Amino acid sequence: MSADGASGGVTIRRATPDDLDTIVALRIALLREYGNHPIYGRLRHDAERRARPMFAAQLDSDSEAMFLAEENHAPIGMIRCVESASSPLLVPDRYCYVSSAYVRPEYRRRGVLTQLLRRARAWCEDRGLTEMRLHNVGTRQASVAAWDALGFEVVEQVRVLRLPEAETVTGLSDAADASHPLHP
């Protein structure tokens, strides 16, 4: 791989504010692939409009970076890295949170994610970060297999409890099971 991240016709480069339209398109495409997911399937109708200022700020942030994979100057994938503070009780003090890892379906299984992750690891090394963390959808076998193959291990789960709009944790209904840990 050359210094610009080129390998097999694919180039990896850091995204800039000029790439905002591309970043919005790729990240929204990622979310749309999960239409049946209990969290990501609840995409707002105006998600693209809401995404623009948030993603613009992320592109301009000193504590994060987005990298684009391109083939013949056309975007085919991306990855986002955020330098995050850990709990003051745990080591390491800081780690890289990886999000929005996405490769267009027609370019998958060609090593593009591996190349994006290689560039993300270099970003981590430049910042003295010694750990990378991410969330992935556990019901997608291809996603699970890809992250396993890239060396990531499962260390926790994300769980969701949907509350009726009128019910809050401090106002559980009287019918709540008294053995429930949140029951008074």
Short summary:
This protein is of the alpha+beta class and 184 residues long. Helix content is 28%, strand content 21%.
Give a structural overview.
This protein has 184 residues and is α+β, with helices and mostly antiparallel strands. It is 28% helix and 21% strand. It is built from 4 helices and 5 strands. The protein has a 5-stranded mixed beta sheet with strand order 1-2-3-4-5, with helices on both faces. Helix 1 packs across helix 2. It is globular and about 50 Å long.
Number of strands: 5
Distance between the termini: 59 Å
Task: Give the class from helix and strand content and strand pairing.
Answer: alpha+beta
The spatial strand order of the largest sheet comes to 1-2-3-4-5
Poorly predicted runs are 171-184
Report the CATH topology name.
Answer: Aminopeptidase
Report the average pLDDT across residues.
89
The major sheet is characterized as:
5 strands, mixed
Q: Count up the domains.
A: 1
